Protein: Sulphotransferase Stf0 domain-containing protein
Amino acid sequence: MENLAWDGWFAKNGLPCLSLTYEQIQQDPRASLEQIARLADVEPVWEADLKSGLEIQRDTINDEWRKRFLSEYADAPSFRHHRYRIRGFLR
Structure:
């Protein structure tokens, strides 16, 4: 929803918008920077060996938390926050 709001803001102001994901940048940092350079109308300059500097930070603990969360809350009607039921959660 937040991305949709940004897309609308850029369109309303007549500005071009470029959306890149972490995975796209990690997989091909050179192509990502070339897209950014084109958008900024500049000539990219970098070293021959270009690395993103990004590293995957998840580990087995993150996987365990995800599994636990999904086992407890994947069924939307069972998700409760205090005494209030949140509808449509994780649909």
Q: What stands out?
A: The two ends are 14 Å apart (CA to CA).
